[in-house]
Queue: 4 jobs
Job 1
Amino acid sequence: MSEVIEPGLELLERQNRFVSEHLRSIFVRIFRIVGNVADAQDLTQETFIKALQRQEQLKDELKAAQWLSRIATNTAIDFLRRSSRTSFCELDEAPESLSESPEQIVLRSEQREYLEDGLRLLSPRERAALMMRDVEGMPAEEVARHMNCSKATVRSHIANARAKFRGYVQNRKR
């Protein structure tokens, strides 16, 4: 005699597995765009709510992961547009090495602030494209899929972001 599983229970188990498999990567992607832990947590939850409302999209695992990533990116960019602000939280300090001097600790902190200030100059879409391409190492084609735009648009966002950041660095050196 085989055990009968209720359809609702099977669906719930599939949803839980889907969320647990993708939760960390989606949170990290959103955090890199919005730069705030609390907002990233809220937006991650919002992303999964949107995804789970469309069960038919979750059948194919590979397509579901790409689709979820696109939802996350768009949710984060929309949030930044709605809030018309960008906020950054303190990044966790790297554990001090025994050989690190107080001067090195201060220098690392200044470098982090310098990077955060430069990122504030970028539009949400430029920041998202730059983070996915240069930080996460995604190919431009994949970034385009996640941002729901063309590869040329992604390259334009990345080029604009790099130019703005270069200008920021040059101005800071003066």
Note: The chain has two domains: 7-89, 100-174.
Job 2
Amino acid sequence: MKGDTVEIRWHGRGGQGAITAAKIVAQAAFEAGFPGVVMAPSFGTERRGAPVEVSLKISKRKINDVCPIKHPDVVVVLDDSILREIDVTAGLKPGGILVINTPKGRAVYDGNHIRVATADVTHLAEQAGLKRGIVNTGIIGALAKALPIVPFAKLREAITMEFNGKKGAENAEAARLTYAHTTME
């Protein structure tokens, strides 16, 4: 962390909702009393399945730097297959946190000097009543467990509001289940 600022870089695929997940966390952080919140997506060709990266900065102070994150405190990975394509931990600070949607646990990533949080978000989201592949709200639960700076109740409230009338309860349940089943190593 840079002083009062936490930098979170999200990696997903087009259509998985990485941008929406970062937006939900940003909204909840703002409502929880963090006046400095900046989110910036970056992606190549807009197509389903293409890699997507989102930068999210959360601070107790106003943020003027809107550049993409080069040295994150936390990296969130919505699809563990991305680990074979992109060095998602590039620039991750020593002692940083890697949050991964995977059924394989810590074995999916063999790097050192970081903490790893894993959960089978895909399976847990299905248990909550979402279609296979809808993992963006579930991964918020894993992030909340790994980095408890925004109250989980605020995150669930923001999820319910974002998906009001569109499976809001199921999306909030995906986050709750994932929070309960996230392992930190």
Note: Residues 18-31 form the longest helix (14 residues).
Job 3
Amino acid sequence: MDFQQFYLSAQGRVNRKQWWLYLILPVFVVSLILSIADGAFGTVDTESGLGVLTGIWTLIILIPSILVHIKRFHDRDKSGWWVLIGLIPIIGGIWLLIELGFLKGTEGPNRFGPPVTD
């Protein structure tokens, strides 16, 4: 799967390994680096605690993250609309973490296509 297909398409499936290694880990590392940079450059708003660089980064990764989450739900043979469960405070985030990060996808082909091979 190429970069454009992975991050900019809701078609297909993404397994747990890909979700952790190609979405969660890079987003976490870049967010951490940008948070440190915001602190070093003094670009953090003291009232909200949000930094300019991390805010821009969040806007950049918003749509690709949603699309990858949709494909992860496809791997679990569920509709991409399940991403909306993340809008429920606290419980939604926990649900997404368990569902997308720890539960195995369906074996073999499902209605969203064949399983992804690494």
Note: The chain has four helices and no strands.
Job 4
Amino acid sequence: MNETLKELLGKEMNDLKNACDSLDYSYARCRHITVKAGLNNETMERFEALTARFARLSDIMIQKVFRTLDTIDLEDRGTVRDRINRAEKRGVIESADNFVEIRMVRNEIAHEYKSETVLEIFERVLTLTPSLMKAVEGIETYSAKYLE
């Protein structure tokens, strides 16, 4: 692996860790809140931070880190689904299907504006966040061999 790819992976791993720490903070602030209609502004703000941080971490992971690992491992680019499937084959993530759902929720976060749907998104993010954060550990373990 050339130094440019090693530097890129190192930077992306740093971004991944920072994004995971931010998501972990928001998750801790939201995970015990019951999602229901009529949430006050402070609670809505907490959940909006959570969903933004969820989307950011999933983007860094899928769009950057998985793509860089594919380049390092001499894999074809392919689709987002291809990158996710290869991450599962590497043992970086436990379930490709779970990550497809994470990607779909990320897309819903970016494009949904109805209040009743927003509450559903909050619930799904609360459910999927532990899997997303756990994947960071798998990525760190897999990437360590390239960053030594």
Note: Residues 115-147 form the longest helix (33 residues).
